[in-house]
Predict the structure of Alpha-glucosidase.
Amino acid sequence: MAAHESDDWWRSAAIYQVYVRSFADGDGDGTGDLAGVRAKLPYLAELGVDALWFTPWYLSPLADGGYDVADYRTIDPAFGTMAEAEKLIVEARELGIRTIVDIVPNHLSNQHPWFRAALAAGPGSPERELFHFRPGRGEHGELPPNAWPSQFAGETWTRVEDGEWYLHLFTPQQPDLNWAHPAVRREHEDVLRFWFERGVAGVRIDSAALLAKDPELPEFVEGTDRHPFIDRDELHDIYRSWRAVADEYGAVFVGEVWLPDSERFARYLRPDELHTAFNFTFLSCPWDAARLRASIDDTLAEHAPVGAPATWVLCNHDVTRTVTRYGRADTGFDFATKRFGTPTDLELGTRRARAAALLSLALPGSVYLYQGEELGLPEADIPPGRVQDPMHFRSGGVDPGRDGCRVPLPWTAEPWATPWLPQPAGWAHYAADRQGGDPSSMLALYRRALLLRRTQPGFGDGGLTWLEAPEGVLAFAREDGLRCVVNLADEPVPLPAHRALLLASGPLADGLLPRDTAVWLRA
């Protein structure tokens, strides 16, 4: 089914992230599934999104929320079947919604047949060459091969019964693959084709800058020019090969690329590599006018040399919910600072999240919306006995983990039957069926904003021009007279001259734009 997409839809798309396990429960067992997603496709069409990005729905022991994949060609039975996935792709496309799937190339599950075979085959075997097995250091090999830092807290090496150690930048259940091995490259290209043949329009690449490792596995030295496992030059040959596969089908890539160096970041977006990459500087930026403007400028400057569109996102399945984060004293995001009991002002956070929605949706390029953001969901406090995220346990219980943004969505005032993560008391207030009839709700704001973005000129890919504005105010022009103004100052400010008010994130005060409020205008 190698049907080519004929346009550059991805350059301006609004893409909705579906965390299947928590989206909608079709069979009442407390776990979200594909039947639930299929039942909610009309909701997603009414919301007005162009594509759905599904976090991993493959067979997995769920040691890390599905990012430990045991079989890319099988849907996890908790979610449904391959036949259901194929129906979902078709049914969504009939509603004008494309499908993006997640590929996790850095590692597999320790339950994957490759790794099980490697354990059984023993030291020096061809099966072990697909991973990073090494003898240990010390007199009896009792020390790990090196002291590389983990992407989670904890160790990066685990010793097996025969004495060798294997590398895992994440959990021990996620052994890293050896991307210098041709079989690893062939397998992943086959997986890409498998899903493109089923009508998938794109692939999100998890931890895209981590695949290649220095074959000598040297110690990590902070500040050295060439990192032993992040952003190595060998990666670009891998992604050029992937791009050739995607081009056969007219499919696209979005990479999860966390890099502080803008020039290195832009290399992944060259015309023969990835189409887009996530913009983490904007996601983690505090609610501060000067810093947001700098983040926007830096993002656009990074993308300009390679002609790639920027991406904008406020939250995802790893990051504290926007409403909660923007209500805190520290409105930025950093994994290292996450702690239990951090206070937040949800009223303030909600007002800022509404304004941030209009800001992000007005910027040039594509935008990603994490499920539940359109409902204004806060970060949930998970009771200690119910926490499941390995980040929590590997931190010794210091980090609350990511479960708080992964709680099942409240579709109605009645909670899910025995949900896999508990829905907090009081979440009936956020229920989609209640918000749907309230013109002042967060859901109504997102529906209206996405409709305007899709039907009015000036949105999506293109240029941006900053306008003169008071200190603490962001104001910029897009094409066809479109204007976006966001007030982050302490006092209300006058609106600039305009012909029409298209949308406001909150009520205006005597023609003035209140603090923490945004508007779309037509000049």
Observations:
- The two ends are 45 Å apart (CA to CA).
- The longest helix spans residues 346-362.
- The chain is about 25% helix and 15% strand.
- Residues 42 and 95 are 8 Å apart (CA to CA).
